[in-house]
Every structure is written in C-alpha cells, then in structure tokens.
Automatic annotation (TrEMBL):
Pfam families in UniProt: COX2, COX2_TM
Gene name of this polypeptide: coxB
Organism expressing this protein natively: Alterirhizorhabdus solaris
Chain intervals for the UniProt region annotation (Disordered): 34-58, 318-378
Record protein name field: Cytochrome c oxidase subunit 2
E.C. number: 7.1.1.9
C-alpha cells in the first residue's frame, strides 16, 4: 500500500512540470497570436473588404456602389442605458420584458426579504449576546425543547421560500419558453472576439473586435466596450441567439437584456431576447476564456425595422420576403442580392426597401485578430 502511494506521488510530481508548461503555452504572447488568428478567421460572405474577396467579385461590388441603398448610420450610445455607469451598483435598466420581470423580482421580492431577514437575525444575535452574557445571566437556562417555537422556526422559512418560489419559477418558465423568433443570429465566441452570422438574411457574417484606445471615438462607446462591428437587431423583434464557440468556453452576456449564455465549442446553446427600446447595449464575455478575456466586448444596436433593413443591405444581406412583400412597386428589377438563398419569411420583418447591397461597404475589419484594429477605422 505504501509502495503504491509512493509511486502515485512520484508520478504526480513528474507530471506537474508538464502541466505547468501546457498551461503556460495556452495563452500565447499577443504578438504571436495576431497572425495565426488573422489567418484562421473564417472568411465571410461579406469579407469583401479583404483584398482577396474584393478581387473575386469586383463587378458585383461596383454595381452595388452605383445603387442607392438607404444608408445606415451607427447610433450613438447614451450614458443612461445599456452600459455601466460611474459608481453604479444596481441592475442596469432593463429593456426586455424578461429583464423587467427579473428586475422587479430582485427589487421588490428578493431584496426586501433578504434585508428583513438579515436585520432580524442581527438584532436577535445582538440581543442574545447582550442580555444573556455571563455577567448578567450567571445561571443559564436548561430549556431544550419548546414545541411552539420549533413549529414557528420551521414553518416561517418554508412559507418564505414558497413566496419566493412562485415568481421565481414563473420567471424561469418565461425565460425558457420564448415566443416564436422573428430573427435568428448565430453568435460565435473566439479567442478573443465575437462573430455574428445572420442566417435569415443571406447568411452574412460580421467579425466584432474591441476598438483599441486611439482608434475608438466617443460615439463608439466607452473604453473596453466599444467595438468595430456591432450586432444589429430590430426593435421589438424576438431574436433567437444560437450561441457556440470556436475554441474555448466563452459566454455571451448583455446585462440590459437579461441575457447570458455560455458559448461552448461543439455545442449549440440557445437563448434570446426582445428589446423594446432602441439604443446601443453593451456586454462582455462572461466566462474566463484566456489572456484577453476582458477585451472581447459585445455591442448590440437595437434599431427601427427600416434601419435594420438598411444595415442588412449595407452588409450585402437580404431581408426575408423582401421582394414579394415589401416592395409594392414591382417595377424594381431584381438585384443580385435577392438571388441569395431564400430564408423562411419572418412575419413583420419585411424590408421596407428593396434588398440591394449597400454603397457603404464596411471597412477592412473582417480578417483581423482581436488585438488588431490597424487600418480598420477611417
Ligand atoms: Cu471569452
């Protein structure tokens, strides 16, 4: 037995340096990481800004530039919503109905109950420590049973838990049974940036990197939260998020939506939200994922349906059912973009404008690593 123990200890000691080396190797130095990641970043249909893609379809892009699509302008963030505030310690203002319910549950049910219980227990402790101290109470009571008080201290917590359980289970049910989605966005975590795919809109893809200081402008958002490519969704639309990862476990979290979902390699997780108020909403990766975990923020633009359609067009995507539904004057010739794979029509998300690849092609932001913003900003 002793021999076995010795062998096990020797083995674990021998393995320790190897384990340390393996861990040290994982977070590779930043400069070295840049190039391989740039190479491994998946090439997207909208990667027209990269040199290779541009040369592949020069004609289509020229035609697109000649067309007049409604321009999409990034909306400016406002300090009172969708981002942390200086000295703030409360839950961010919620803009989804699930978030509002959760906030109500926290503020109206949980916090008062916790506060009352904590104060009650504290007062009891202070009273007992003072009243029954040795100097004041030299002969202690030998009472060991009291039926009434035992019933009370068993029933009271049970009742409190029941009061909490009802709204809690209702909230869980609401979170996990969302209404039918109007729009699906596939969210992919990468070390250390996010990619967003829009399968309902021609399956284009965005690569979203944090904007470094010096590149970031005030209208991009706060430091460490501003990104070059924001996810854009229409206001009031039920958005289904399919969340996964390319490398390690990340977590997609936007506090103002009450949305948080792990991005696990090889697995598709689903969550969603329906934002009821336009604006820019920031979040962060919420699963420790490596050296630059703190530098892969999330920014979501919630915009009107018209703006969303314009944005989709600016990315070379299409709106589902755009041609038959949204364009009453059918004289408009079919644009090259409408020849894309037809996605199932989402009711209420029809485009108000013909789906035409936009003029304002995105700057070359799609093939960079998380650390790079070189040349990506005008
Ligand atoms: Cu991460």
């Amino acid at each position: 037995m002793k021999t076995l123990k010795t062998i096990m200890m020797a083995l674990s000691l021998a393995a320790a340096p190897a384990a340390v080396l393996a861990q040290a190797a994982a977070p590779a130095p930043v400069p070295a990481v840049t190039t391989p990641e740039a190479a491994t970043t998946p090439v997207s249909p909208t990667a027209a800004a990269t040199p290779g893609a541009t040369s592949a379809t020069p004609d289509a892009k020229e035609v697109a530039k000649a067309n007049t699509a409604p321009a999409y302008a990034k909306i400016a963030p406002s300090a009172d919503i969708g981002q942390p505030i200086e000295g703030g310690f409360k839950i961010q203002p919620q803009v989804t109905s699930v978030g509002e319910d959760a906030q109500w549950f926290h503020n109206v049910v949980l916090m008062p109950i916790i506060t009352v219980i904590c104060i009650f227990v504290l007062v009891l402790l202070i009273y007992v420590a003072f009243r029954y101290r040795a100097a004041r109470n030299p002969i202690p009571s030998k009472t060991s049973h009291n039926t009434l008080i035992e019933i009370v201290w068993t029933l009271a917590p049970v009742l409190i838990l029941l009061v909490i359980a009802v709204p809690s289970i209702q909230l869980l049910a609401k979170q996990y049974a969302p209404p039918k989605a109007d729009l699906t966005v596939k969210v992919i975590g990468n070390q250390w940036y996010w990619t967003y795919q829009y399968p309902d809109n021609g399956d284009f893809e965005l690569v979203s990197n944090m904007l470094k200081e010096g590149v970031r402008k005030p209208e991009d958002g706060p430091r460490l939260l501003a990104v070059d490519e924001r996810m854009v969704v229409p206001v009031g639309a039920v958005v289904k998020l399919i969340v996964t990862s390319n490398d390690v476990i990340h977590s997609f979290a936007v506090p103002a939506f009450w949305t948080k979902m792990d991005a696990v390699p090889g697995r598709l997780n689903e969550t969603g939200f329906k934002a009821d108020r336009p604006g820019v909403y920031y979040g962060q990766c919420s699963e420790l994922c490596g050296a630059r975990h703190g530098f892969m923020p999330i920014a979501v633009d919630v915009v009107s349906r018209e703006q969303f359609a314009a944005w989709v067009a600016s990315k070379g995507g299409t709106m589902p059912g755009a041609a038959p539904v949204a364009n009453p004057d059918a004289t408009t010739p079919a644009s090259p973009a409408t020849a894309g794979p037809a996605a199932p029509a989402a009711p209420g998300l029809a485009a108000p404008a013909p789906a035409i690849p936009a003029t304002g092609a995105a700057p070359a932001t799609t093939s960079q690593a998380a650390t790079a913003n070189q040349g990506s900003q005008p």
